TrEMBL record:
UniProt subunit comment: Heterotrimer of A, B and C subunits.
Signal peptide annotation: none
Gene3D superfamilies referenced in this protein's UniProt entry, alphabetically: Amidase signature (AS) domain (3.90.1300.10)
Lineage: Bacteria, Bacillati, Actinomycetota, Actinomycetes, Pseudonocardiales
Protein name according to UniProt: Glutamyl-tRNA(Gln) amidotransferase subunit A
Keyword RNA-binding: no
Natural source organism: Saccharopolyspora rosea
Protein task: Allows the formation of correctly charged Gln-tRNA(Gln) through the transamidation of misacylated Glu-tRNA(Gln) in organisms which lack glutaminyl-tRNA synthetase. The reaction takes place in the presence of glutamine and ATP through an activated gamma-phospho-Glu-tRNA(Gln).
Annotated InterPro entries: Amidase (IPR000120), Amidase_CS (IPR020556), Amidase_dom (IPR023631), AS_sf (IPR036928), GatA (IPR004412)
Residues annotated as domain Amidase: 1-446
Amino acid sequence: AHLDRIAAVDQDVHAFLHVDAEGALAAARKADDDRASGQAASPLAGVPLALKDVLTTTDMPTTCGSKMLEGWTPPYDATVTRRLREAGVVILGKTNMDEFAMGSSTENSAYGPTRNPWDLDRIPGGSGGGSSAALAAFEAPLAIGTDTGGSIRQPGAVTGTVGVKPTYGGVSRYGLVAFSSSLDQPGPCARTVLDAALLHEVIAGHDPMDSTSIDQPVPPVVAAAREGAAGGLAGVRVGVVREFSGDGYQPGVQRAFDAAVRQLAELGAEVVEVSCPHFDYALPAYYLIAPSECSSNLARFDAMRYGLRVGDDGTRSAEEVMSLTREAGFGPEVKRRIMIGTYALSSGYYDAYYGQAQKVRTLITRDFTAAFEQVDVLVSPTTPTTAFRIGERVDDPMAMYLADLCTIPANLAGNGAMSIPCGLSDEDGLPVGLQIMAPAMADDRLYRVGAAYE
Ligand code: GLN
């Protein structure tokens, strides 16, 4: 049924870069057989899923939305991919994304934009717009995204779906093509909080193949989602982040958010305002740290090891071939980030830019620590505006970066955060996202509060 749905709508939505109908049907038949013999691999055995094209798969290409990796099929599965297969989840295909996960609209994909199913002239968010659009268009009930600065949560918000960035280290990065290694985190995308929790438990947990993977039990997110859905929020303290409102926030977004906060109070939560003064500096710190790490990580695309090779006609040096390949293979946003990052890390500037940004990162972590002494979770709008029009921000990187204003602090500090739908803006009728943030390794709180609200 989902393959039929993809065939019917994906020429308009363009959520997928690759669909593996044969592989999906074979996995589905196996799941059926296992279930018939009473051996279902997991509660999600047989459930279809859309996988962001930044996680490696041995049976499908992995392009990261870039010409650089066109036609490259990886020699190994990401740990997330492996765990999905072991759980009997049916991988339908790979979803569109901003090139190497850099962007907030999926317009930076080398393979053309994904469109928002709510309004095909609008963006589905980014970088994981394909995964969230696939859910909103009912092309898949589950998806995987990755979140470096908001790429699971912001697409979730603007497509009216659920997206969770787990605690950094909670889900393995092995086989996730690196953008900014200290920030990147895979996570679940779904249409309900409980679905996201079930997927979270399949993909999370310690992995010796990822040196930053946390060797602790996975937070009990499924139990928390069930508890939240069954009960209210009595005894839960919710902090509204003061800094994430005012100028730049669409009134329709603000009103939907305010209504959500009132509903949390009606559910029994104790709601207070909390100040996190350094959150205002999260965006500039991120746009130094992420490009710095990206400039280092993307050095591996040297025309020798992966995918594209341009100008290798026997007359040119390896350096010339590398240069021609990187010129042709990377799009404008990726080049901008490599240049900013290379500059920020260069000798003489390192302390002034990268070093300062890392200090700001520590201050933001301290803001979270202080806030979580007063409250159990923090809330804010996920993103200041609803889905903007395709093309509207492509020539204005600063306007594009503002989409991540509220999501970035959790990446810098490493704690978990979730976006869930909180109604439609009364200005344009488009979905608004409620962001919930919890302390590190307390991801279960996100699910309890999210499921109670939902
Ligand atoms: N939009 C942000 C960026 O462009 C976040 C990307 C992400 O989370 N992968 O960097």
